[in-house]
Amino acid sequence: MANGLKSSTAARVRFAPSPTGYLHIGGVRTALFNWLWARKTKGTFVLRIEDTDQERSTPESRQIIFDSLRWLELSWDEGPEVGGDHGPYTQMERLSIYKEWSERLIKEGKAYRCTCTKELLDQQRAELKAKDPKANFRYPGTCRNKPDAIPDVPYVVRFKVPTDGVVTYVDKVFGEVTTPNKAQQDFVLLRSDGIPLYNFGAVVDDLAMGITLVARGRDHMVNTPPQILIYRAFGAEPPDMAHLPMMLAPSGEKLSKRHGAVSVTEYRDQGYLPAAVLNYLARFGWSHGDQEVFSLAELVEAFSWEACGRGDGKFDTKKFLAIQHEHMKRENLTSTKEYAARLVPFMKLRGLDVSASELEKTIYTVRERSRTLIEAAEGLDFFYREPHVTDDAAKAKFLVDTNAPNLKGFLSVIKDASEWTEAVLEKAVHDWLEKEGKQIKDVAQAARVALTGRTASPGLFQVLAVLGKDRSLARLESAIAIAEVTPAPPPPPPKEGAGKEGATKEAPKG
RNA sequence: GGCCCCAUCGUCUAGCGGUUAGGACACCAGCCUCUCACGUUGGGAACACGGGUUCAAUUCCCGUUGGGGUCACCA
Fold first, then answer.
1. Helices marked H in A239-303 — which ranges?
2. Å separating the CA of residue A15 from the C1' of nucleotide B63
3. How many CB atoms are located within 10 Å of the residue A19 CB?
4. DSSP line for A171-208
5. Which nucleotide has the least CA–C1' distance to A319?
């Protein structure tokens, strides 16, 4: 009962990445689930930078994290650049806090100073391994029972792990998990340079920041028992814990650069929509009946830890693209206004300086056929490029003398149309075709190549309407000029497959 | 190897004792069609194995197998 109440009241959750590179797609999922929970409970989403790995942390990575989260629209309520009552939100700025809290534990006999050097322990570990490759090295407890005094050599602070007993906690997605304490060693809290290790820094901060639920990847599940021991040493109740199943590469290996894009910024640059990225990630390890496509608001509404699965999954780029396509197609998911605004930079990349308001008028022609903003930009290119570019193969195949008469006829019909609208043009052309005893397919491809420069495009009459009368006529005229002086290629030889099929069918005759 | 976790179509998953085991992606075939798409109809495709519990197990329990995580003065 008390637990249910705790879950439904405003949660304080956090996302605590290390600034050691790009923001991994798996990290984004962790951020998303936390963010969803914060929004659903009308709670607080805290961003904390865990930069205690001085070797790997960089200011650039820190910036990438901010940029990525902002692009995804996963806004944080407390954290770097926005502030809050529990700062600072960067661990390297909290060193005095860790020092103070560790002294507290030492004073209470729950932790101790250890002067064993890393070199010594590495050596002991190596010796043991040499004797017995299967052996499990653990800190032997050399300094565990020494009376406390500040040594005159560098020392680390170690946690005094109880020699017996177990840690049991109820994971929000995995249920009850029990680990024996004797499986753990006296792990290090504070390094000799005063910088905390992950488990200590995270617990101190989560406690100090009033975090009520910790959600992270399953690779952290092994950290939970020692962390709970630390919470208890501080006389505190641990927050709720939730672990998320792993996202694996299609091969079943850990997801890495080798298996395609793992950095969110790559998806951004490939023309994915943030809402689509979030949608795919949300459905990975979480489900809501048969629903596949969600807006962000729907995710917030529907999300729950209970509906999270426990099995690891494999990242599927095809399904990801399909979800992305849905978001590109549906106006209620991506309004034309938003679509246009996001498209502008992709047009710019093609050297086309088109305003969002201009794009808003043409987007309807590519909505269903573009899966990404890059594809949309490609699809819209010929509307804005003057002169437009004609594909060589398309030109050679369609802008030829045998098509010239049809193109001329087509041109003169639309030129005389009573009104330059899709419907009127279509009717005019069809009337003409009927009179001529021709079909639209006899002229469509040549006209398409003339107008768009390619063999695949939006509907012919949509193209005419968007292009406008002057440009349409001009493009047709120059195409006709080319066609008239270009001899048609020889007809292709009969297809082998078709011949065989015919032979089979007519075999009884022979 | 120790500790921990997991197990339904190829993939993401629904299922919370009794179902023709459902959906989505992908795949195949058809329809639609001025191209590309979209849309649409249909199809193949799964409960890892072995014991229990039960009138009844995909579902609950145990084991086996398989997979994953982690064993640092990284996070």
1. 264-269, 274-282, 296-302
2. 40
3. 21
4. ETTTEEEEEEGGG----EEE-TTSPBPHHHHHHHHHHH
5. B25
Of A286, A308, A303, A309, the closest CA to residue A41 belongs to: A303
State the Cα–Cα distance between residues A408 and A404, nearest whole angstrom: 6
The reported pTM is 0.93
Exposed e or buried b per residue across A431-468, where buried means at least 16 C-beta atoms within 10 angstroms of its C-beta: ebbeeeeeeeeebbbbbbbbbbbbeebbebbbbbbbbe
Burial class (CB in 10 A: 0-12, 13-18, 19+), A270: middle
In Å, how far are A21, A75, A501 from A280, measured between CA atoms?
Answer: 23, 19, 44
Helices A460-467 and A469-484 meet at what angle, rounded to 10?
Answer: 120
Give the DSSP letter of residue A387. Answer: S
Q: Which of A107, A118, A182, A257 is catalytic?
A: A257
Separation CA A209–CA A77 (nearest Å): 13
Say whether the ipTM exceeds 0.90.
yes
Q: What is the pLDDT of residues A295-317, one digit of tens each?
A: 999 999 999 999 999 999 999 99
Alpha carbon distance A457, A467 (integer Å): 13
Residues 6+ apart with CB under 8 A from A115: A143, A151, A153, A154, A155
Tell how far CA A220 is from the center of its chain. 21
Nucleotides of chain B within 7 Å of a protein C-beta? 1-8, 10-14, 22-26, 33-39, 67-75
